[in-house]
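Input (Gamma-carboxymuconolactone decarboxylase subunit-like protein):
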Amino acid sequence: MAQKQTAGRDQLWDFAPKFAELNDDVLFGEVWAREEQMSARDRSLITVSALMAQGLFPQLEAHMRIAKTNGVTKDEMVELITHLAFYAGWPKAWSAFGLAKKIYTE
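Output:
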């Protein structure tokens, strides 16, 4: 089961309340909660892949942590990054490995 997300409210409520609400209630509260259609683990694999491909490393770090919580193993993360290196770019893979190494050795 996906963990309840409050990052929007925690970080942006005072500045951008509607965005915070949409982040927590729609994206994480409705889309990520559709576990009968796709597991949180699989959504994590997809999300990490999309963020790495775009080079969005601050968000990638947060979603790698979520992926680990959702059961994505170190070996699976290593394989995901290795595979994407050929499609998303070698420098992005190096950066992603730095994050993954930090997260999976904590």
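The chain has six helices and no strands.
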